Amino acid sequence: MNKGLFKFSVRDICEIAVMCALAIAIDQVLNVKVQANGGSVGIACLPLFIISYRHGWFKGFIASAIVYGFITCVFDGYGLITYPFDYFFAFGSIGIAGLFGKMIYRYVKEPGAKSKIISLLLILATVLIHGVIRFASSTISSVLVYHATLAAGIAYQATYVPATCAALVIFLYVLLPALLAINNQYPTAYLNGKTKKEAEQEQVNE
Fold this sequence. Notes:
Layout: H1 10-29, E1 31-33, E2 40-42, H2 46-55, H3 57-76, H4 83-92, H5 101-109, H6 113-144, H7 150-158, H8 161-185, H9 189-192, H10 196-205
Helix pairs in contact: 1-2, 1-3, 2-3, 2-5, 2-8, 3-4, 4-6, 5-6, 6-7, 6-8
């Protein structure tokens, strides 16, 4: 198992804290309200995806579901009863992006159109997974917490979740070269560390 997956260094904690703060700030000031009671299109989740890509699913989940999710829930003021589905599960799903981080960075480093297309498809997959889970969990919250009908809950989420996901895919793909440069300058233990199996395979090859 990659040692960088669960172990937090001081630099990891500082970077994750800054990125979570950036996500919270973006959520508060850079979004387009499409619903009077919460629905908005924005890119607040962008720093959270970067955390997951750079540090793996575990740290991505902690940052998204617990740190960002809880603080945003408090700031939004709809009550902690909304936290489990609207925040914990909805944003915690971003952690899944960490499972694809190494593959994305590997392909973006390779030249050629094929590698660029594969990296785009991987980003699309990670955002789509998040979007589906967020859509489903927020719809459940609409029914259980706000007592809306299932059809109304689905219609409500449809006004902003797909557009938000589309914006995230565009921004993440545009930022890939910058993220690669950042990782070359400030590598993370997760992206650059080797699993036990990979280390054993290298020894066999030698």
